[in-house]
Amino acid sequence: MSGTLRTLAATAALAAGLAAGAAQATVLTFDVDNSKPNVSVAMPQAYGDRVTAAVQGGASYGVGAEGFTGNVVVDYAGSPQTSLIRWPNAYGDLTNVLENETDGATYIDLTFTADAGFQVVLFGFDLAGWPSKDYALPGGVRVTSGANTLFSQSNVLVQGDMVGPRHTAFDFGAGLAGQSLALRIDLAGLAGNSDNIGLDNVRFGQVALLTTAVPEPATWALMILGMAGAGAALRQRRRCVAAG
């Protein structure tokens, strides 16, 4: 491929990575079963998948001004995974939080995966301590996309006390983006207090990507020859007009 063709191909490839369309936003409020608002409920894997309405499948969601996330699925994991539950109250000023009920549990993981042609964007989330207490979270929180760490903070103060701020808020501004994102709440070191950390108001969205294909070298060559031929014809016409 000639230098000109390489330059044109590189420009087209760069354009293919640009985002098209506005971000959309869903809020996981963990109101996972509207028929049981005031009791603990096992966390269903389907909660947060392809959200297109504020109430969907007997569960409720918050929504940002931009819309919903019909092209994203959410997976939940813990240690053990079966101990993840929705708890209704007493985690600071939060209601209906996600927590790991097993004493000595080491993490809560949420993984967000977007369909092909989309990216998922994490905007923020809240943490609070039970029963209305503050806790130090030595392992902190981390957000990754594949092998890349997009955010990491250790020794997080998780608030919940009746006197000070009632919860700890994480806000990522314009958001952390990737085709897949993993959020880890690291509970290591909390021992019997590991179930006293609650997660709520997870705000995430989606962005559609522009997927313009890069033409084959032969196609680039024909395009360049066509433009060269048109230029030659235009120059010949100008010479004829000047001669006349």
Characteristics of this structure?
single chain; 41% strand; disordered N terminus; alpha+beta; 5-stranded antiparallel beta sheet; 244 residues; 6-stranded antiparallel beta sheet; 2 helices; elongated
Could you describe the 3D structure shown?
It is a single chain. The protein is an alpha+beta fold. The two termini are about 40 Å apart. Mean pLDDT is about 85; it is low at about 1-20. The chain has two helices and 16 strands. About 15% of the residues lie in helices and about 40% in strands. It is elongated. The strands form four sheets. The protein has a six-stranded antiparallel sheet, with no helix packed on it. A five-stranded antiparallel sheet has the order 5-8-15-11-12, with no helix packed on it. The chain has a three-stranded antiparallel sheet with strand order 2-6-7, with no helix packed on it.
Mean pLDDT: 85
How would a crystallographer describe the biggest sheet?
A: 6 strands, antiparallel
* Helix and strand run: HEEEEEEEEEEEEEEEEH
Tell me the distance between the termini.
Answer: 42 Å
* Helical fraction: 10-25%
Shape: elongated
Q: Strand share of the residues?
A: 35-45%
Classify the secondary structure makeup into a structural class: alpha+beta
The count of strands amounts to 16
Number of helices: 2
Low-confidence stretches: 1-22
Radius of gyration: 26 Å
Strand order of the largest sheet: 3-4-1-16-9-14
